[in-house]
Design goal:
Elements (H helix, E strand, L loop, with lengths): L8 H13 L1 H18 L6 E5 L15 E6 L10 E3 L12 E7 L8 H11 E12 L4 H9 L14 H10 L2 E9 L8 H6 L2 H8 L7 E8 L11 H5 L8 H13 L1
Parallel strand pairs: 1-2, 1-4, 2-3, 4-5
Antiparallel strand pairs: 5-7, 6-7
């Protein structure tokens, strides 16, 4: 199924950053961090990469992974060394080279979201984890998007991919879904006054069956059938317990038998 035509990310990036800096955008980012950071803090490995639409937003500060870096869409002043400038659908990383991949709205703001997900799966090593952060269409924000997406304004120009479709994509890429969470139930009003006046709707969205927060977070793992990963290095040493006779020793034993 094709997606609606979306303006290039480079053209809406200034507007998207401005929205992230707004009070509503900051509240949403805080809700995302509250969901993602507990996940990230429990995932280990050597390399973590975040596919970002805004280089200023980092969700891996609490990660125990040794090397964390981001893939960002444009080169900007003040960009740190732990950033790679590239398209999310064409990442210059080796096959199966990363332990953790975080997609921060990368599927929402791209012309080819399935290709971005495929690229994330490609660079993820077997047993590695993928965290997908995106807007939830089954929410107040999803309803609001139906009226505003034609204007091409951020963030309403995003794809807002449903969990059902995302689950199908994960299965096709042989990724096992482990968790599905959502958060931030406020109405999408820019003015805080209106968000406070409609606070009663937050409780309603929380009580409804399913996930109806503005933000959706999915945790998945890349599995390979028939493969049981070892949890630590000592397991490797336990596999070799019997002494091995050297070839020279076997030859000496054979000569001793012949002389008997």
């Amino acid at each position: 199924m094709s997606f609606h035509k979306q303006p290039p990310l480079v053209s809406i990036l200034p507007q998207l950053k401005q929205w992230f800096d707004s009070e509503l955008g900051q509240e949403m980012l805080a809700a995302e961090r509250a969901l993602v950071e507990p996940m990230v803090s429990t995932l280990f490995g050597m390399h973590l990469v975040q596919f970002s639409v805004d280089c200023r937003v980092r969700l891996y500060d609490d990660s125990p992974v040794a090397h964390c870096f981001s893939v960002v869409p444009t080169l900007e002043l003040g960009l740190t060394d732990n950033n790679i400038v590239a398209k999310a659908a064409e990442v210059p990383l080796a096959h199966e080279s990363v332990d953790v991949v975080v997609l921060h709205h990368s599927l929402d703001f791209t012309e080819y979201p399935h290709q971005v997900l495929r690229e994330a799966s490609r660079v993820l090593r077997p047993g590695g984890h993928l965290i997908i952060v995106g807007f939830n269409p089954a929410s107040y924000w999803g309803i609001n998007r139906l009226f505003k997406r034609k204007g091409g304004l951020a963030p309403w120009a995003g794809h807002f991919i449903s969990h059902r479709r995302l689950s199908d994509w994960l299965k096709l890429l042989e990724l096992t879904e482990l968790k599905n969470l959502s958060g931030y139930y406020s109405m999408p009003f820019e003015k805080a006054m209106w968000r406070k006046r409609t606070a009663c709707f937050q409780g309603l969205a929380r009580k409804l069956p399913g996930h109806h927060g503005a933000v959706s977070v999915v945790l998945a793992r890349k599995d390979i059938a028939g493969m049981t990963p070892l949890r630590s290095g000592w397991g490797l040493r336990r596999l070799i317990t019997l002494p091995v006779v050297e070839p020279s020793t076997r030859g000496t034993l054979r000569k001793n038998r012949e002389h008997r």
